[in-house]
Specification:
The structure holds three protein chains of three kinds. By secondary structure, chain A is mainly alpha-helical. In chain A, about 85% of the residues lie in helices and about 0% in strands. By secondary structure, chain B is of the alpha/beta class. In chain B, strand 2 and strand 3 form a beta hairpin. The mean pLDDT of chain B is about 80. By secondary structure, chain C is α/β, with parallel strands linked by helices. Chain C is built from ten helices and ten strands. In chain C, the strands form two sheets. A six-stranded mixed sheet of chain C has the order 6-7-8-3-9-10, sandwiched between helices. Chain C has a four-stranded antiparallel sheet with strand order 2-1-4-5, covered by helices on one side. In chain C, helix 3 packs across helix 4. Classes of the chains: A mainly alpha, B alpha/beta, C alpha/beta. Chains A and B meet through helix 3, helix 7, helix 8 and helix 9 of A and helix 1 of B.
Chain lengths: ~260, ~160, ~270
Amino acid sequence: MLERIAAALRRLGRQFINAIWRLGYASRFFLLVLLRSGTSFRRFRLVVKEIYFAGVLSLIIISVSGLFVGMVLALQGYETLQKYGSAEAVGTLVALSLTRELGPVVSALLFASRAGSAMTAEIGLMKATEQISAMEMMAVDPIARVIGPRFWGGLISMPLLAAMFSAVGVFGGYLIAVVLIGVDEGAFWSQMQNAVDFRYDIVNGVIKSVVFGVAVTAIALFEGYDAPPTAEGVSHATTRTVVTSSLAILGLDFVLTAFMFRGA
Amino acid sequence: MDRTMVDLWVGIFVAIGIAALMVLALKVGNASTTFNVGETYHVSGDFDNIGGLKVRAPVKSAGVVVGRVDQITFDNERFRARVVMNIDKRYQFPKDTSASILTSGLLGEQYIGLEAGGDSENIKAGGSLKLTQSAVVLEKLIGQFLYNKAAEGDSKK
Amino acid sequence: MPPPVENLVEVRDVDFSYDVRPVLKGINMAVPRGKVVSIMGLSGCGKTTLLRLIGGSIKPSKGEVRVAGRVVHELDQDELYAMRRRMGMLFQFGALFTDMSALDNVAFQIREHTELPESMVRDLALMKLHAVGLRGAAHLMPAELSGGMARRVALARTIALDPMLIMYDEPFTGLDPIAMGVIGDLIKKLNDVLGATSIIVTHDVQESLKIVDYVYFMSDGVVVTQGTSADIRGSQAPFVHQFVWGEIDGPMPFHYPGTATGADFGVGAGHA
């Protein structure tokens, strides 16, 4: 009995130490990526290619999701607001929910599953097929050449995608509220503009999406770089990327919201 | 894969992204009318009660937004609320301008209304408004109404 | 001991272990300049580890590896990278970059390490592809190449910067006999044409014995035999004989060590 408890404790301790060890390794990795980013800027074409993979290819899913989220928000918001006779405020509701929360958060979640998982799988497979080692043997630093451009590409794409998500979402809300339900168009826009502050709501939303972009790409790249070079290892790493970055997005969102939108 | 095609698509992507940001800033948000970008000056006023006034609430005169509430503090010596407002440089007000806390609609947001006085001298940056009127507190109003009704009933007896 | 020529690579008393499992135990080796040297042994006997030590990806637990007179594990990152530019390594399955065409794969190192104009980069890469007979396949992606062709493209990429030392990690694995012969032939020719030195890690005895000058035979982390191709072919050491002639049983047992047969099958427990 005592033996069992001791074994369980040992296992727990080992897992804890492992987690700390991994955290340290991940931090060192992240620092290296930042330190060796010179290549990414000297040869910006590499970054452009990654913006294509991370950003351009996510365009469709982001805009379609944004449209639907905006439309649903308008439908639901209208249902509730019209009970209080303030159906025009539906514009405010849609715009504020999107710019502050749903735009950055939902687009980051989509980005993690669309682009993040692809990054992990790609780098994991490059490792499994010895492409990373080959690069090292050719005296080319894979962190500078492979990881860096992907990091910056993802980082640049993320806020743009979030902005598109919000803009398309507001348009979706407009379609439902004004075109379909017939809320007064002038009231819809003017109430929205009155309530949404540029510095307070929109800039904070952009800051959020930048932070999420850093988190998702860093997690995805680290998981790929750290993946055991086997088919199983890569598939686990891909799953872990989606799970870890989704949790990171939601957790960070809470922290950022608490900092940005307290009081007032 | 053709490199120039990639460049083209990335260009389109970045352009759409920036356009979306502009739409958010100008059409959805209030960057077009915001006063954070233009030059402003500070004016403060002391109120007995600010009700539900919030930082960044609009400051209006004759219904036009001329500024925003910058900060709200409590003056622990005179036990009043001190409200600092950011007013657009383009708008100057006489020294005896009065400020009152008003509500847009019955339950809407609260804002500060400025009513210009007749003094020939304008208020300086950092100056304070002497004439203020506190927010109408609904509970007090209702309490007063009920009290009056009760008093009426008493007198009718 | 190898003949008294200048040695490009020298391995002295090297020990190496992954965690606590010893992989290499007191290895001594010398690779003379201009020769093709082969390291043979069973899978998992530490051959690839040895290549990684020479390439500087890992550090020995004890001893030292010298390349061109310099101790590899004492170099800093810049010096190591400078040294690797003069080394080429062909990986087991080629390790071509799957997102680039054959031409771009070969041009990769030239683009990364030189400031040559694009047209010259292209010409140089095409020349290397021509050397392995695949100039016509320059525009193909790695997925469109057969195993043998991919290996040849990888070979062209390895020699892109005319290295002084070329390392081959199992260059014959997974190839048909014709492709094997082609690769073997190319290894020998390129070594002589480029004036390079080659190290081949392999377990394919027959193919490599045709082209190598000197052989080190490894088993279980130690060098068991060494000599020229003829020495090895004629060796009477039981282990080498089993290996060279592919005998099923011998000093290297067929059965993986485990519990006694009887215990596993539940019969005759106690006297199995």
